[in-house]
Amino acid sequence: MQEHQERFNALLVDLVKSAEANWHETRRILRKDERYAECDLLDKEKKESAFNEHIRNLEKKRRDAFFAVLDEHPKITTQTRWKEARRIIQDEEETFSKVASNSERKVERDYRDWQELRHDNAVREFKDLLKETKIITYKSKRMIEENEQHLKDILAVLENDKRWMRMSENHASERDRILDEYIEVLHRKGTPPPPTQQERERRRKETA
């Protein structure tokens, strides 16, 4: 049975290249191939299930490729509205034909998913950057209130990092809000607790 399953999967890889394919038409194409007879131990349900899994894999590859093209496109950012992005996608058929779905509704859904995913990634990476920035401490809010130079010192560190730049390109106001909130949270928490013995040992090993 396993051997028949593997043969059928190989048949799908060879003959089904588009995620837009449907099972009814694909089955007729598969039957014309002489290798189809070598999969006769698989019942209809298993074949259709294997086909659906193959389509999901193709769809994921297509979508990932679509996202990659969007990532590198010089005219499209996460702030580009769908109306403008749609015009670019339609005008640049050669660029997008192999990675965009035939369904405009699905293309729009993929585009909005890409926007959301890239935005969430940028925010998460920016928050990681703030945690890594040692100059920002629970004292920062008070120090900024007393002298704005401390804020300038913080920005001088952050501005050299690509994670800051990425937020600056498309989400500057959100970037500033997240920074302010982070400084406020540290201020409210106050002095961090002393490190545990385990933490002290870890730090000692890192600096050894």
UniProtKB/TrEMBL annotation:
Pfam families named in the record: FF
Which keywords does the record carry?
Repeat
Domain named FF is located at 56-117, 118-185
> Compositional bias of type Basic and acidic residues: which residue ranges?
198-208
The UniProt annotation puts the region (Disordered) at 186-208
- What are the annotated GO cellular component locations? nucleus
Q: Which PROSITE patterns match?
A: FF (PS51676)
**What InterPro entries does the record point to?**
FF_domain (IPR002713), FF_domain_sf (IPR036517), TCRG1-like (IPR045148)
One example GO MF annotation: RNA polymerase binding
The protein's name: FF domain protein
